[in-house]
C-alpha cells in the first residue's frame, strides 16, 4: 500500500508533463500523398495534408465586396508567419466573391503545429480584424475549426473522469451494498496514475498521440474498476462461505486473479497488434493503450489483495447482501437458456447478423461538415459562404506540387478532370519557391469519404501523365494513403490478434473448442457493433436525437481501428470471466449444463455491472465536443452492451450447452505443448443435480 501511495503521488506529478509532450501528428511515412505533403510543408511552411481555413470579409447591407479586400487579405497575411493566401487578387479568379457580391473570401494555408493545444483561429481572426476594410465583418472557418465542435468547450478530461467515477460508484454501491464500493475506485486511481508515470517515460523515446490521454483516463478507469470488482466479488464470496480473511484472499487470487491476468492479456494483445500498422500515431496509441491493462492488472493483483488483507473485513459494512449463494435471477435465466438453447442461439445470431449486414454499408473517411459543429462562429461563417454559392469542396482542396514553369499548363489540364470545380494558380511569392509551385484544385464536393475521394484518385491518375507534376496531396490524398497503408495491412493485424488470443485462451480454458468459439463470437460482436455505429452515426438514426448531430455520411478513418483494438480485448474480458467460472464449475461437477447454470448464476450480475461501469465511462467520453471522439465512445459503448447482453448472456451459454462435452477437449499433444494438464472427452456426463440456490 505504501508503494502504491508513492505511485499515486508520482502519477499526479507526471500527468501534466506527460500531456504536454503528446502530439497531434498523423503522418503516414512512405505513402505518396504523405511524401508530397511533407515536401510542400518543407518548401512553403504550410498546407500539405492540412485543410485550409476559409477567411472572409463581409460588407454590411449587401454592399458589394470592395476591390480593396485583396489588399486587406495581404495585410493580414503579413502579420501571420509561414502561411499561404489565395484570393481574387493573386489568382485573378472572381469566384472568391459570393454570388451576392457582399462577401470576399480567401484560402489560408497554415502550418499544423502538432504540439499546439488549441487551433490558431483566434490569432487569424485578430490579424484579419486589424486589416479589415471599414465596416466589414471578419469570418474564419474551415474543417478543423468545425471539427473541434461548437464553441462550447465540453467537460474536459478531468470532469469526464469525475462523471465516470460517480456513475461507477453508483453501480458498485448496488453490487456490494457496503463501503467496499469505494475499494475498486481506489485501485483505479492507482492504476491510472501508474499509467501516466509509464507514459511520461515513453514520451522521451517517441511521439505519442493526444488520444492516449482520453483513453488512459476513461478506459483505464473502467478496466481497473472491472478487474478489481471481479477480485473483490470473489473474495467476498469466499468470506461469506466461511473462510477466514487470509484464505479468502488466497482463493480469490487463485481463481479471479488468474482470470484478471488472462483478461489483461487479451486487451493488451488487441492493442499491441496496432504495431503491425505502418502509421506512427496508430502505433503510439497501441503502445500507450497497452499500458492501461498492464497497469490495471498490476494494481488489481497487488494493491487489491493488500487492501483486502488489511482493511477488507472492516469496510465490508453494512452487510446488506451476501455472496454465499448464486443469484436466483441469473440462475433462473441460465436454466431457461440451457433448456431452449436452439432457440436462444438462433435468435441471438439473427440479431447479430442483421447488424453485421448494416456494417456492410460502412463508408470510411471523415465526417461531413454538416455533422460537425452545429453552432458557433465557424458554423455561421461556413453557411454564409455556402449560401453564397461557394462549393463545399473549398474546405478540402487538392494540392498539386509542380514545377513552376509547368504550373499554368498543369492547372489548365487538371481543371478539366471530372469533379473539379476550378484550378487556382497564385502569382504570390508564397506559392512559388525554389522552382516549385502549388496548384490548388477545388472539388465540387468535400472529399471526406471513400466515395467522394474518387476525384482525388482521378486527379492523381491524370497528374501522373503530365510533365512537371511532382505529387498530389491534400485531405483527400491523406485518406487514400491511410486506406492503403492501414486497411491494406488489416488482414495481417486480424490474423495476428486472433492467433495470439486463441493460444492464450487454449491455455487458460484447457480446451480447443471454447477459445475458437470465443474468438469467432468476438469478431461477430465487433461486426454488430460497427453495424450500430453505421446506423447511429453514418445514417443518423439516433445521432441527431441524442447529440443534435445529423448523419456524418462516413466514419473517420482511424475510428474503426481504435474501436477494434480496444473492443476486441474489452469484450473478451467478459468471455474470460464467464468461461473461467464455468470451467471451474465443470471441473467440480463434470456436467456442462450444470456448470453453465452455476457459472452464469455466479457471474451474471458481475458481468452486467462491469459492462455498465465501462459503458458509463464511454458515456462520459462521449461528452467531448469533438464528433470523432463521440463516434468512438458510442461505438465502444454499443459493443460493450451487445457483448454483455446478446453475446455473453444468451449466445455463449446456448452454444456451450450445444457443444456439450466437446467444450472441454484438449488432447495430450496440445497440453504438453502448452504445459497444462490434458482434458480428455468424458465418456458420459453425469445427470445434473437440482440447481437454483448454490454451488
Automatic annotation (TrEMBL):
Keyword NADP annotated: no
The chain positions of domain SSD read 168-310
Q: How does it sit in the membrane?
A: Multi-pass membrane protein
Keywords for the protein's UniProt record, in alphabetical order: Cell membrane, Membrane, Signal, Transmembrane, Transmembrane helix
Q: Where is the signal peptide?
A: 1-20
Residues crossing the lipid bilayer are 155-175, 182-205, 211-233, 259-281, 287-312, 342-362, 486-506, 518-540, 552-571, 606-625, 631-651
Q: Does the UniProt entry include the keyword Transmembrane?
A: yes
Known InterPro entries for this protein?
MMPL_dom, Mycobact_MmpL, SSD
Localisation: Cell membrane
Pfam families, sorted:
MMPL
Looking at the UniProt record for this protein, which Gene Ontology cellular component terms does it annotate, in alphabetical order? plasma membrane
Name it: Putative drug exporter of the RND superfamily
Upper classification of the organism: Bacteria, Bacillati, Actinomycetota, Actinomycetes, Jiangellales
